[in-house]
Amino acid sequence: MTRPTATHIVWDWNGTLLHDIDAVIVATNASFAELGLPPITLEAYRDLYVVPVPKFYERLMGRLPTDEEWVVMDEAFHRHYWLAAEHAGLAEGARELLRDWQGDGLTQSLLSLAPHEKLVPLVRSHGIDRHFVRVDGRTGPSHTSKAGHLVRHMAAMEAAGVTAERTILVGDAVDDALAAAHVGARAVLYTGGSHSRRSLESAGVPVVDTLADAVRTARELSE
């Protein structure tokens, strides 16, 4: 009888391992200002945020942004975000949790909708890249959901014995739970990022307030 593959965690980056919500709010309000929209508070952002991002703007504007508006807002967001993100630190306990998971002989990877060419050096700058069997950022348009990217991420790890049924995705967005379900994995959602607890609970998966609780829940789901 084949022994089941050990639990694998796919970590989200923005709002999960990287505590960048302050940078996100700064960049979001900068992009709003480009179109004369009023600034948004953190609480309102967490209540309204959704992926794909144009749907988030639809909730705020009452309509989807035009192609021209999207280009302006997307460029402004990323220009301001990447300046602010340089000062963002890892979430509380993240470094130790990554080290301990690997130390237990378990595998983990990182998948983000941040552009791949920006993600990789940023992860490396925090000194945690050695803990992951794979790091993937977004390639292609920025107005996509995570599901398709997770399909490719999982396929790239098949040779390492990583299977969807033994994988837990830890993220901060409802889209993370939808992506996990799309590939047959499970999800744990963390309240320290882009969504309110109320919004996250609508996904019907475990919701936690710390990354330590996320890892603890991942272990419990795998038993």
What can you see in these coordinates?
Helices cover 47% and strands 15% of the residues. The chain has 223 residues and is an alpha/beta fold. It has a six-stranded parallel β-sheet with strand order 5-4-1-6-7-8, with helices on both faces. Strands 2-3 form a two-stranded antiparallel sheet. Helix 6 links the parallel strand 4 (107-115) and strand 5 (135-138). Helix 1 runs antiparallel to helix 4 (67-85) and helix 7 (147-156) crosses helix 8. It starts with 7 loop residues before the first strand and ends with a helix.
Short description:
The chain is α/β, with parallel strands linked by helices and 223 residues long.
List keywords for this structure.
single chain; 223 residues; alpha/beta; 6-stranded parallel sheet; two-stranded antiparallel sheet; 10 helices; 47% helix; globular
Q: How are the elements arranged and paired?
A:
Elements: E1 8-11, E2 18-19, H1 21-34, H2 42-48, H3 53-61, H4 67-85, E3 89-90, H5 94-103, E4 107-115, H6 116-125, E5 135-138, H7 147-156, E6 167-171, H8 174-183, E7 186-190, H9 197-201, E8 207-208, H10 211-221
Parallel strand pairs: 1-4, 1-6, 4-5, 6-7, 7-8
Antiparallel strand pairs: 2-3
Helix pairs in contact: 1-4, 7-8
Number of strands: 8
CA radius of gyration: 17 Å
SSE ordering: EEHHHHEHEHEHEHEHEH
Number of DSSP helical runs? 10
Average residue pLDDT: 92
Percent range of helical residues: 40-55%
Termini gap? 18 Å
What percentage of the residues does DSSP assign to strands (E)?
Answer: 5-15%
Shape: globular
- Structural class comes to alpha/beta
How are the strands of the largest sheet arranged? 5-4-1-6-7-8
Unreliable spans: none
Major β-sheet profile? 6 strands, parallel
